[in-house]
Amino acid sequence: MTGADAQPIRVLVAEDQSAVRAGLVLILRSAPDIEVVGEAEDGEEAVRLARELRPALVLMDIQMPRLDGVSATRQVVSEKLADVLVLTTFDLDEYVFGALRAGAAGFLLKDSDAAALLTAVRTVASGEGLIAPAVTRRLIAEFASPRTPVRRSAREGEAPDPAVLDALTPREREVLGCLGRGLSNADIALRLAMAEATVKTHVSRLLAKLDLRSRVQAAVLAQELGVDGP
């Protein structure tokens, strides 16, 4: 649906600092296509409200009391309650990688302006998970590098099995490699000389085959397994 018939994007805001949370809510409510359906001040409340309210997206702070944002993200994503857009103070915060591995669809810096916040919410809600490709490429490269053992400890779960790639077609592998480079659908379409709609189809299929929730998870997997794009 489009125009007046379109349903607003239902957002749950999870942030432990009341002043910051109020500011985020104020910005989100200024947009006619976004509806704030709830507010949480810690990770446990975020998970509870996500189950109760079923928002389209949870704006999740990384560091919160009782249950941190990484653990809360893992629960929300594993139960398929909503997409998660994580908030962090630094673009290379080691916790961000844990959140992306847990299934977050993207991340946003807390000092981003109002326009960037609204764009990020709309972008994640539309399924285009890589919010800032340049920063995301740097983040993925940093935490996927074997030269950073301390930050690699922030990973969730065991190292992926290369055999998971056997289910992919050659074209899907190429798309996965492009995701690993942090490319958008439009960039992939240009690089692989295909329609953007076809790229979206390949992304959806490879996510399903690899049992991944977001294109960011796919990008991290591509980096870990050394899948290079053309």
UniProtKB/TrEMBL annotation:
- Which part of the chain is the HTH luxR-type domain? 161-226
Span of domain Response regulatory: 10-125
Source domain of life is Bacteria
| Residues modified as 4-aspartylphosphate | 61
Q: Which InterPro entries match?
A: CheY-like_superfamily (IPR011006), NreC/VraR/RcsB-like_REC (IPR058245), Sig_transdc_resp-reg_C-effctor (IPR016032), Sig_transdc_resp-reg_receiver (IPR001789), Tscrpt_reg_LuxR_C (IPR000792), WalR-like (IPR039420)
Q: Which SUPFAM superfamilies match?
A: C-terminal effector domain of the bipartite response regulators, CheY-like
- Keyword terms, alphabetized: DNA-binding, Phosphoprotein, Transcription, Transcription regulation
Q: Which Pfam families match?
A: GerE (PF00196), Response_reg (PF00072)
**PANTHER family membership:** TRANSCRIPTIONAL REGULATORY PROTEIN NARL-RELATED, TWO-COMPONENT RESPONSE REGULATOR
Entry protein name? Response regulator transcription factor
Species this chain originates from:
Streptomyces decoyicus
